[in-house]
Recover the amino acids of this structure.
């Protein structure tokens, strides 16, 4: 029973609905929240299986369903769903692994007060990831991509009362957003060049030959889109958030590292593969190879069980990017699928250990868990062997072989192959170290000593994942490359190459052997004892333990730059611009003062001085007025006499 | 908007637009007359009158014809014959979006200030005056009364900040009013000169003269440049365009919550509206010539605004800087369009996207910034209450500025509040699925097609926004409980729900269905983008 | 001595004026000073009559008119003067002119 492309939206819609129900459900009702989340994802799993049946009917076909989101200008911004084997297989993987992680979480977070929110966020995470998978538009993909980032932010910071968790959540969001900016620019560039963001649109989609032929600047566009993948998939140099994301609850780590977030970047590159030019692919291959080796190197010197696994994820994602870079995206997806199963298995196994050992995560404090936790031990060992690439039985071997063969066949450079081979040894080595420290020897702390096996809600998912970690490999062996041919009917699978296979088997054996020789034969007695490697090469070990000082480097450069820019912007405002405003207001005040002074000094003052002078003179004149009436009369008489004399002497006519 | 002089496309049976403007003012008059009214009566009356805009908007939406790009519901009466002034109102898609925004923000802002202690009657009257003036600005098509509304909006804003504001409110209010009036004075001179040359104040008429080059020919190259700069300065201060923004952080920070919401939600849009309605149509050539410089300034606002926000310790100042950052995106898009105008092979699609993005961003920023201010206001009331041992502290009596460090772990104490505030924050940050993303995406899509370098630099602003908002979130809501929140930090209560929930719901609705807005503006914006020519 | 009637009249009025002046200057009683001033005024009136009667153009009663006005004004003046005297007496309990110097500058 197939699922046609028109109804593909149901796959992400169901978990989204569960998230919605969860957000308004009462907090006390635990079964409602977890029940709806699990039921919705299980339904989505069934629908994904239906979608796969539809897709398998015609694997080369890209079935689409496009529609207008909103009108813009004479056209519209369009989104759509896309159904092809890649989408269907990824959906199955996400829903299946997600479902097991959900079930595991019901046991793991049994005692948490915010159980309901946790399932709400988990559902949102799954919904965003599934939406990303079914998108037939880079825009829709970007929308879901950002929502994946939001969900990871909420989940990494789930225990937000811990400052470390809050900081890690912020770091994850910001670091991935740096990459997202590249993706955004690449997307608008692509939109501007082609006028569309639909992948497949009856000949007009951006991944279709006619459009690609006319597209200019596709190397730059491809690299900008790759920036997004670098951020999300934890590639060098933006890998720093991934280990810190371990602050979230362990099921979240499993979900991020196996099924959802980091897979998104690899998926994106696989999806836009037709767009990538040889130049862009070279950059991708080298980035992937560097990341693979760097992650493996750092993992050797970590002591936190989850951080070892986190750096192993970084390393494995490097392999996937390497595969895409050398032109074989189908093997990248093959490794993505197998890695999802065994990495989910390893994380849930680690979660099982941590839960049993009362949240003790330091491998030096654990030890001897082989006895009390038999199921966990067995399944974890299967996951470890799959990751290390133990030959023939385990899936990791086949997918890693496929990548190494593709790298071998790459005609640009053999450097990625050599880096990849070096990482193979290291992977086997650090996983052996992890197994030896955690499960062998004697318990080195009370927490480890009292550990007991967990209930079936946690062990059953482990068992199921262990089966997949073995079985999935047989979908893509060189003898029957079903997966590669389904994903891309035109894919050319390197058959044979037994020489390379022998080399990598030897390298795995070397890694396992040396790991056992150093850590297994003589197991650690005291938790405070120094690491054997640290004794032999203390400075190298310390450098690796400090994660190659990337955080310090970034704090010293980008952190300072960020702080400096903030200080600069603020100072510019406070001093220059506000200073200019203050200057002008002072200028205004000054003009006012000058105006007042002129008014009072020059104009009013002159007036005052004149009238004051007049007043003084009048005063002195008034002194003449004695008030003596006789005096006045005497003056009159005197005047009279003068008059008389004047008349007499002048001879009046 | 190089449209011809407008014959009235559609006249409504009654003067709907005048009613829209003057109903709030009638409410203000009523409130001043009701001397004996209790605080509750005054509040309810204010709210009822402020809701009138939303009610009239329903009528508008019912009869609005999105396909017509000319102003609708026109009203034109001779007013001052000697000056050729007409009382001229009209509404197109741009105005409609902003009227809707005003209709939504005002009641919500009133609800956010519901518990304000002092003189509810005066507060309501001032607020309604402000609302009416803002609506007048969005609807007037003649410079004369447009300018009256423009200046009139300052008066109630001044008193709202000064009388109900924080400790430094007086200084902030004076700075705000004097700075913006200083800017408007240049604009007034400019328009006086335009009137002396053309004999008209009518926007459409002037736009026509500006578009065909008559204006430049009549005035001469030098004078029109000065007039352009004067009008530009007046509008740039109002938006504000970096670096004319220094009045904004203190004004927004000192204003009472409701006033901050209105200032950032509606008043800052008046400036952007002025750019779209006046500067761009009347001075196309001059704006084009100045566009490289203006683009630089807008980028300064985008990038440095975000990083300056990172440095703020006062929460309200931080949100204020986020406004500088977000509004700069609007201007960036407009300047990019003007920059590319006349270029051979100009992509009309990019211009359409940029202009649509500008209008959407105006609306979306109104919602998200108002919601953020409401949240900070709630934090503030809680902190005041805890500091004062249970009695709410009257505003304007020396409230300490709110620091990032004063809070912590609020999410544990008030999960619902934290959730709503988080949604507002992510909306402001441009998270897809919420309203902010669509506008920002369209702006980036458009600006990239018009000036790729500017789009690349503006990306840094997105990073900065995420940095400071998440820092805010981490300090205030995460981590262990801190002093100010240590008392009983109660979750949301009745009126606070009413203030926040509508905004948050709209964020979801517009994030998923942006066509609700784009439907109204798309033909208008398409017509603008189709007439991008220089005289 | 053969004098014209005009000259006789003028001589008489000059004498009258001098008597009034001497009286006004020599007395310290304000009322008597006022009386002296009245005499001087009447001397002036006499001059008006004389110039009119023996002047060139004696038909219209111009001189008489002036004198009648002057007498009326003098009567008013006397009334004001006496009122002032009473006020001065109220203030300084005598009417000595030398003491009434309050209006000096």
């Amino acid at each position: 029973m197939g699922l046609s492309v028109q109804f593909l939206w149901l796959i992400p819609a169901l978990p989204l609905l569960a998230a919605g129900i969860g957000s308004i459900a009462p907090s006390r009702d635990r079964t409602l929240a977890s029940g709806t989340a699990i039921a919705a994802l299980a339904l989505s799993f069934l629908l994904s299986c239906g979608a796969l049946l539809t897709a398998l009917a015609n694997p080369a076909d890209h079935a689409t369903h496009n529609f207008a989101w909103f009108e813009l200008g004479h056209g519209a911004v369009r989104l759509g769903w896309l159904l092809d084997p890649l989408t269907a297989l990824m959906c199955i993987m996400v829903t299946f692994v997600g479902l097991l992680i959900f079930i595991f979480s019901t046991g793991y977070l049994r005692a948490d007060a915010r159980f309901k929110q946790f399932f709400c966020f988990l559902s949102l995470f799954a919904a965003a990831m599934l939406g990303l998978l079914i998108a037939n538009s880079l825009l829709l993909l970007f929308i879901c991509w950002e929502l994946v980032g939001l969900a990871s932010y909420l989940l990494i910071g789930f225990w937000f009362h811990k400052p470390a968790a809050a900081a890690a959540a912020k770091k994850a969001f910001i670091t991935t957003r740096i990459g997202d900016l590249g993706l955004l620019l690449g997307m608008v560039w692509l939109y501007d060049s082609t006028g569309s963001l639909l992948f497949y649109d009856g000949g007009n989609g951006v991944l279709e030959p006619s459009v690609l032929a006319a597209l200019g600047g596709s190397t730059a566009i491809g690299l900008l889109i790759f920036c997004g993948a670098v951020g999300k998939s934890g590639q060098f140099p933006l890998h720093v958030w991934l280990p810190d994301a371990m602050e979230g609850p362990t099921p979240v780590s499993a979900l991020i590292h196996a099924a959802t977030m980091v897979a998104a970047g690899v998926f994106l590159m696989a999806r836009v593969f037709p767009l990538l030019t040889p130049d862009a692919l070279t950059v991708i291959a080298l980035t992937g190879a560097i990341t693979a080796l760097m992650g493996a190197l750092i993992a050797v010197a970590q002591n936190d069980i989850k951080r070892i696994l986190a750096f192993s994820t970084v390393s494995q994602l490097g392999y996937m990017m390497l595969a895409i870079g050398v032109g074989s995206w189908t093997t990248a997806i093959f490794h993505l699928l197998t890695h999802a199963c065994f990495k989910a298995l390893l994380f849930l196994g680690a979660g099982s250990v941590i839960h049993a050992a009362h949240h003790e995560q330091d491998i030096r404090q654990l030890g001897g868990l082989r006895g009390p936790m038999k199921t966990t031990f067995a399944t974890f060992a299967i996951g470890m062997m799959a990751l290390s690439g133990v030959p023939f039985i385990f899936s990791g071997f086949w997918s890693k072989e496929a990548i190494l063969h593709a790298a071998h066949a790459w005609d640009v450079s053999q450097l990625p192959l050599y880096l990849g081979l070096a990482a193979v040894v290291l992977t086997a080595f650090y996983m052996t170290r992890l197994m030896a420290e955690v499960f062998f020897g004697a318990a080195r702390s009370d927490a480890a000593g009292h550990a007991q096996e967990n209930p079936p809600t946690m062990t059953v998912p482990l068992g199921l994942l262990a089966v997949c970690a073995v079985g999935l490999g047989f979908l893509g062996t060189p003898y029957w490359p079903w997966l590669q041919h389904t994903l891309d009917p035109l894919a050319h699978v390197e058959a044979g190459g037994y020489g390379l296979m022998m080399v990598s088997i030897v390298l795995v054996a070397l890694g396992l052997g040396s790991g056992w020789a150093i850590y297994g034969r003589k197991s650690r007695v005291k938790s405070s004892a120094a690491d054997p490697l640290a004794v032999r090469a203390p400075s190298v070990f310390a450098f690796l333990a400090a994660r190659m000082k990337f955080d310090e480097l970034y704090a010293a450069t980008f952190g300072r730059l960020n702080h400096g820019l903030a200080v600069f912007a603020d100072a510019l405002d406070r001093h220059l611009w506000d200073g200019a405003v203050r200057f002008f207001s002072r200028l205004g005040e000054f003009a006012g003062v000058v105006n007042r002074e002129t008014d009072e000094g020059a104009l009013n003052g002159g007036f005052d001085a004149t009238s004051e002078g007049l007043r003084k003179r009048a005063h002195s004149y008034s002194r003449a007025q004695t008030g003596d009436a006789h005096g006045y009369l005497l003056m009159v008489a005197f005047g009279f006499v003068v008059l008389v004399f004047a008349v007499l002497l002048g001879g009046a006519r | 908007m190089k449209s011809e002089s407008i014959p009235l496309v559609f006249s409504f049976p009654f003067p709907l637009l005048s009613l829209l403007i003057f109903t709030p003012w009638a409410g203000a008059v009523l409130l001043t007359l009701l001397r004996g009214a209790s605080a509750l009566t005054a509040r309810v009356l204010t709210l009822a009158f402020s809701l009138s805009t939303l009610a009239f908007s329903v009528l508008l939406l019912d009869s609005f014809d999105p396909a017509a790009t000319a102003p609708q519901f026109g009203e034109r009466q001779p007013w001052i014959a000697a000056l050729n002034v007409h009382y001229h109102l009209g509404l197109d898609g741009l105005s409609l979006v902003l009227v809707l925004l005003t209709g939504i923000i005002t009641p919500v802002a009133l609800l956010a200030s519901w518990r304000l202690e002092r003189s509810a009657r005066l507060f309501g009257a001032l607020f309604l005056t402000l609302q009416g003036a803002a609506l007048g600005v969005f609807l007037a098509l003649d410079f004369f009364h447009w300018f009256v509304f423009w200046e009139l909006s300052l008066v109630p804003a001044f008193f709202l900040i000064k009388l109900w504001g924080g400790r430094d409110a007086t200084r902030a209010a004076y700075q705000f009013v004097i700075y913006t009036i200083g800017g408007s004075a240049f604009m007034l001179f400019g328009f006086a000169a335009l009137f002396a040359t053309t004999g008209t104040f009518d926007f459409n008429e002037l736009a026509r003269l500006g578009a065909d080059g008559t204006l430049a020919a009549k005035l001469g190259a030098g004078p029109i440049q000065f007039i352009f700069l004067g009008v530009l300065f007046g509008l740039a201060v109002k938006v504000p365009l970096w670096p004319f923004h220094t009045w904004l952080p203190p004004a927004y920070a000192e204003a009472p919550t409701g006033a901050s919401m209105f200032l950032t939600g509606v008043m800052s849009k008046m400036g952007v509206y002025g750019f779209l309605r006046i500067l761009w149509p009347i001075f196309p050539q001059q704006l084009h010539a100045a566009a490289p410089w203006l683009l630089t300034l807008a980028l300064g606002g985008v990038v440095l605004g975000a990083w300056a926000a990172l440095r703020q310790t006062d929460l309200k100042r931080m949100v204020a800087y986020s406004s500088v950052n977000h509004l700069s995106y609007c201007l960036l898009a407009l300047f990019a369009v003007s920059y590319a105008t006349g270029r051979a092979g100009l992509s009309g699609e990019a211009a359409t996207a940029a202009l649509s993005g500008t209008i959407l961003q105006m609306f979306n920023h109104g919602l998200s910034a108002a919601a953020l201010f409401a949240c900070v206001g709630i934090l503030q009331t809680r902190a005041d209450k805890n500091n004062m041992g249970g009695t709410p502290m009257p505003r304007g009596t020396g409230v300490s500025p709110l620091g990032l460090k004063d809070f912590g772990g609020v999410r544990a104490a008030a999960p619902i509040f934290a959730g709503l505030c988080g949604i507002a924050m992510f909306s402001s940050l441009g998270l897809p699925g919420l309203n902010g993303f669509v506008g920002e995406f369209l702006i980036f899509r458009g600006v990239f097609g018009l000036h790729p370098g500017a789009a690349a630099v503006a990306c840094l602003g997105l990073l900065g926004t995420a940095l400071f908002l998440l820092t805010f979130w981490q300090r205030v809501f995460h981590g262990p409980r801190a002093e100010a929140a240590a008392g009983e930090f109660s979750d949301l209560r009745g009126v606070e729900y009413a203030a926040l929930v509508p905004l948050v719901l709209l964020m979801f609705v517009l994030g998923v269905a942006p066509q609700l807005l784009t439907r109204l503006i798309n033909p208008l914006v398409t017509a603008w983008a189709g007439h991008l020519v220089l005289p | 001595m053969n004098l014209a009637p005009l000259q006789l009249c003028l001589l008489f009025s000059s004498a009258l004026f001098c008597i009034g002046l001497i009286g006004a200057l020599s007395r310290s009683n304000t009322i008597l000073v006022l009386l002296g001033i009245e005499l001087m005024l009447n001397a002036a009136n006499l001059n008006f009559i004389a110039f009119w009667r023996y002047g060139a153009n004696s038909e219209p009663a111009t001189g008489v008119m002036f004198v009648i006005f002057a007498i009326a004004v003098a009567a008013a003046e006397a009334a004001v003067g006496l009122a002032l005297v009473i006020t001065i007496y109220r203030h300084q309990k005598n009417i000595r002119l030398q003491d009434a110097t309050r209006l000096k500058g």
